[in-house]
Structure formats: structure tokens, C-alpha cells
Amino acid sequence: MKRALSVILVILLSMLPIVAYGKTVIDFWNLFTGPDGQVMEELVKEFNASQNDVEVRMQILPWGDPYYNKLLLSIQTGTAPDVAICHSWNLLIFAKYNRLFPLSPKTLEKGGVNKGDFLERPLAAGKYKGVTYGLPLDLLTLGTYYNTDHFKAVGIDPNKVVSSQENFIDAIKKLQMKDDKGEVTRWGFAPISGDLWRYWYSLLYQFNGTFLTKDGSKSSFNSEAGIRALQFFVDLQNANLIPPTSIDAATAFRTGKCSMTIAGTWMRRGFEEQKDLNYMTAPFPFIGPKKAVMAASHLLVLPQKKNRDKIEAAGKFIEWLTSNQIKWSMNAGNCPTRKSVINSDIFKKSPKHQAFISQADYLAWLPQVEQFLPIQSRMSQEIDAVYNKQKTVALALKDLELYVNDILTRPIGEAGK
């Protein structure tokens, strides 16, 4: 009898997480492993306290393959979260194979979509075959971070944007400092090694190139544009204007060991935490003849589950998050995608955001192909190999071309179906 009662008690206790104090409990997975995770945790707490219908449980998983592999597995095994973050470039691997619920007309209405409040391109990134599967939480892009104290010390006006190739290189030279032996003690500019592929992708489009053909079936980057884009950084390196091998440029910038770096919107919060760092931001430098800079979005999506009983609750959370983009943007650093937020007084009075959002009209979006995650990894390897003098520009682009053209013939998204 006691054993039977114990079993019943265990079963009843296991059911408790489904409803908390009369609320519908939903699970939310994301990959915000940096300071942005703390921001999202605060937003989730605020949402939970703001109403009495829905309780969100948030789980942060490791970025990249570990996150997406676990998300795919959870969908296949019926243990998926109710809401998840999906990068815009990875939507296809989920939407194409019916791994997501489409967003309901009610969520689209309350989320501001039907009012035309979203920037067109980020909103389009959440669609597959005309159906909206994800709402863009933010806009991810690159910009220049620069130390205003260093600028003033060498006679560069910190209020003037370092934009063209000529004044970008001139600033690097003026900002670089050497000791009596000719050794560099402060770099004028240091690239963040993990972002080198993003730099190259941006410059590829600045030199009028493209990453893939129009139908997305083959690569198109092994071209004059691709070569010039990568050669630009090789030339900087050969002229001893950037470190000879990869360094921790983010830390170097925070601690005053380099005066400029190029980084994503997501790095702003980390730089803000350095109390003795006075810095500003500028758009990504215009090195080529055309304005362009890499872009993507974090999408809020609804993974497929066996039943739809929590879709309405999940929709309420998505609606609330997109309505409170200003809090995410101001604290996590990424740009908003809703026009009402972009035009708000709070956002307009944030000068460090303005450099990023000013690029909204010439963004080079990362392609939506189901093989992009491994492509991105290989792209990073090849670009890093050039920077670390392990490969020539020609060899790296050729090897990347062979890899991309091969993997594009294999529908990775079908795995596990």
C-alpha cells in the first residue's frame, strides 16, 4: 500500500511543473551564453511578474552545434521547448522539414507585424515560402569600436567617423605605439579572430561580390571580389598594422592595448562593463566601392510538439518580448527590429547604437541555406588559416569553394527525419 502511495505521489509531483500557481508553464531555450544571457534572464523574470497566465522557464545551452543538435533532437523525441531562439541563417533546417509551428495570426497581430512595425528584411528572414515561422528579436551586425581617449591623444577628432579605407588606415598608423626597440606596445587596430570571417563576408559584398549564386546552389565568392576582400587584411598584416597572429582583441581593446576593433552589436555590453574604457562606435569601414556589412537576426520560434496546448501561452511571451525590444537592445547591445523602438526617444539618445542601425539600408544578410552552420565553421577555419599564415588567399578560397559546393549537394536538414 505504501509503495502504491509513493508511486502516486511521484506521479503527482512530476505534474507540478506544468502549472505554477495557476499559470501555464512554458520552456524557453536560447544560446545567450554571454552577458546577453543575464539580460534575457532579467526580461524573463519581468515577464513572469507582469501577468498571471504564463510562467517561462529559461534554459541557456552552449552556442552553435551543441545548441542546434539538442534542439533538433528534442523535436524528434517530443521533448522540445515551447519557445526557442533560432538564428535567421538557420531557419531553413527547421522550417523546411516541418519542425516549427507557424506563428498564429493573433501573435502576428499583437506582435506588431500586421501594423508594418518591423523592418522589412529582418521580418522576411523569419519566413519560409511566405509563412512566418519566426519573429526577429533583434538585428545583428558589425561596427567599429574605438577608444576616444586614444583618438584625442594622437590628434584625431573622436566625433568624426573613421569610414573610408584611406582614413581608416591613416588612423591605424597614428594610433599604433612602439617602444624604443620598435616593438608594438599598442595596436591601432586589432581584429577579433572569431569575427574574421564576418569581416571578409562584409568586404566581399563591398567589392561587389556575393557568397552564393542567386539560386543558392553554388558558391560565388572565389572571385576578384573575394580575393580583394581577404587580401585587404593580408596587406594590413604585411605592413605590420595589425598583429602578426591572432590575439584576444576584445580584451586588448578593453584594457587599452589596441585603439580600435571591429565587433558585433553583441559585444557592447561587455565593453560597457570596463569602467575605465571611454569608447564610441562607428559604422563598419567602407573599404570597397559599395557599402555593405554582414547581418542576421535572432528569431523567436515555436518548435513542433505533439500537441498545441501551449501555443497561445508561447505566443504571449513572444508578443511581450518583441514589444519590449528596447530593454533587450539597451542592455544586450543588439539593435531593435521594430520601427517604433528605433524611432523612440530612448533609442535615439543612445549614440553607440546609432552607428549600427544607420547601416540598415545596406546590410549583407547571411544566406539561408540548411548547410550554413558547417559552412560558417569551415569559412572561419579558412580565413583564420590565412591570417595565421598557414594558407595563401588563393588556396584558402579554393579549399572553401570545394567544401561549400560539395556540402550544398547534401540536404543536411533531412538528418534524423
Describe the protein in words.
This protein is α+β, with helices and mostly antiparallel strands. 43% of the residues lie in helices and 16% in strands. It contains 19 helices and 16 strands. The chain has helices spanning 2-15, 35-50, 65-77, 92-95, 105-110, 120-124, 148-153, 165-175, 196-206, 224-238, 249-254, 268-272, 311-323, 325-332, 339-342, 345-348, 351-357, 372-387, 393-407; strands spanning 19-20, 23-30, 54-60, 83-87, 100-101, 127-128, 131-132, 134-136, 140-147, 177-178, 184-186, 260-264, 279-283, 293-296, 298-303, 363-365. The strands form four sheets. Strands 1, 2, 3, 4, 5, 8 and 15 form a seven-stranded mixed β-sheet that branches. Strands 9, 12, 13, 14 and 16 form a five-stranded mixed β-sheet that branches. A two-stranded antiparallel sheet has the order 6-7. Helix 2 packs antiparallel against helix 14, helix 9 packs across helix 10 (224-238) and helix 18 packs antiparallel against helix 19 (393-407). The longest helix has 16 residues, at 35-50. The chain is globular, with a radius of gyration of 23 Å. The two termini are 44 Å apart.
Outline the low-pLDDT stretches.
Answer: 7-20
Number of helices: 19
> What's the overall geometry?
globular
Q: How big is the Rg?
A: 23 Å
**Which sheet architecture does the biggest sheet show?**
7 strands, mixed
What is the structural class?
Answer: alpha+beta
* End-to-end separation: 44 Å
Note the beta-strand portion.
15-25%
> Using DSSP, what is the number of strands?
16
Would you tell me the overall average pLDDT?
91
Percent of residues in helical segments? 40-55%
